[in-house]
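Q: Hi! First time asking for a complex rather than a single chain. Here are the components, and I think there are two in total. Is that enough to go on?
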Amino acid sequence: MPGSALRLRDLRKAYQDVVAVNGIELDVEAGECFGLLGPNGAGKTTTIEICEGLTKADSGEVGVLGMRWETDADELRQRLGIQLQETQLSEKLTVIETVRLFRSFFRQGPETSAVIAQAQLEEKQNARVGGLSGGQKQRLALACALVGDPDFLFLDEPTTGLDPQARRQLWDLIDQFKLAGRTILLTTHYMDEAQRLCDRVAIMDHGKVIALGTPRELIASLGAEHVVEFSAGEVDVEAVGRLDGVRSVRSENGSVLLQVTELHRAVPALLAELARQGVALTELSTHSATLEDVFVTLTGRHLRDE
Amino acid sequence: MSKTDHPLVQLTLVRFYEFVREPEALFWVFVFPLLLAAGLGIAFRNRPAEVLKIASVAPELTQALRREKLLDVQEFSAAAAQEALRTGKVALLAEAGPGGTVEYVYDDTNPEGRAARLLADRAVQQAAGRADPIAASDQLLREPGSRYIDFLIPGLLGMNLMGSAIWGLGFAIVDARRKKLMKRLIATPMPRQYYLLSFVLSRLVLLVVEVGALVGFGMLAFQVPLRGAVVPFAILCVLGSLSFSALGLLIASRVRTIEAASGLMNVVMMPMWIVSGVFFSAQRFPDVVQPIIKALPLTALIDALRANMLQGASLAQIAPQLGVLGAWMVVCFTLALKLFRWR
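A: Yes, that's all I need. Here is the structure of the assembled complex.
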């Protein structure tokens, strides 16, 4: 099912005191897993809720599955699967009752039991929602989004607040939807999540898209695949920045971060330079460049700085 | 897709599960009214020919007074008698006045005091030789329907219908809004009118149980009569419950927090608990405010319930009250739909 799943043009939305979305343009292809990555307050949730038909944009164009909310709301609601950020499902109902309720709203879709199996909640199907763990609740929310066999799945911060194991379990589920060829739009402020799940990512800040591309492209745009972080005494940072293969230098909380192209050449050069300056290393680490580094380079802030 | 998979059926079932799985709600809706009826029924039960306690400070009076079987005469010293009167242990104090006269000390705003005055004086006068010119005899009528418990059960029934409709709808809706569950539901193709309708339907089902429990208890434990026809009674209960559901919906139409909702509900219900004649007749309030009191939905419901249950009033006879309830239902429901906030 090739074609455009989502088309946003010059989307704007302001609340009383803050501009939440400030001229966003996006295209999501059918079958793609697209991520909106950004810190809290970047406008991700407002954007996704406009796409879901829950919030009205002040201006701009929203096309979902080739339809528009103004004219095709009923049809769109049948074809979208939605998981909201903070929904608390009724604690007194059981898992199966909750799924059955949501299933009853859609004219077509899989059997209740099939959805529960898909969300790996068979063992819990007669348990009250109030007694589920955070990961199980999130998988139930996902099950409720799947009951209508949606063409387009919206996931708003699907793993926020979950422990690492529950996150991985949810990621595996999302992987299955990708394999099944569903279109997914998800928001997250975890760069590893976006990197792991998304075919393409839009990095958002202050209501704008500040970078767009595949995770690989975005990281490559740094021009450096590796980040070297070290702590030492009084370092001449400028001299370090002139070293061969170092693309940029930044000091942060008493340590120095270098973006480098070739790790095997940059590290010996760095050690030689520090020896020349006569300062002793107290700490040295390296990692492959991530979307977090992209965000830091673009904004000077971390994703989870609040 | 089977019939039970219809969204309205599912939504109503969910309402039902949520209610039944809340032990506190079950207590307040079903058990509490029964306890209240039992407690008040026992406290205000009609005692066999009530005996009034009075005090006498003169031995010659005591003898005369003791001939009256409806009086329990106790002799006191003057100081102790005053004390007993002040604290309500006796309703009246009889003293010997100068020159063979009698003086009664009592509170004339207290019906017991006035009754004791009549009985005591009759006993004293008859002991002194008064003969009644006209012979009189008593025919005693003690019939269910005129006791306090008969007055109380329709009052409690009305109060219960109001409380369960307003609380049931109000809290559930505000809670769903607060937890963003309502927002999640409107993101699905769920027809929105079904959501509201499910509250009304589950209310009507529970209504049968609620009314049955309270009225059944009154009939079995206290022989409270149900003299009116069943159909007008059922219409009255359903219409009453619908009006209060509409009122509950209106209260919950915009509120986002449980605290604000419960404050609003109390503001709406408290005045009606007091003035609408649940525990005592609404006629006791001044004439000026009677038109306002009569226009309140709880007054209309309770008046009509009493007329139906105790006097066997027909549908035509309770038409004015049905009109009041209907008007409240239409106005509140229309306003609620206009104001309702889905998120």
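A: Residues 4-214 of chain A form a domain with the Rossmann fold fold (CATH 3.40.50.300). Let me know if you'd like any chain examined more closely.
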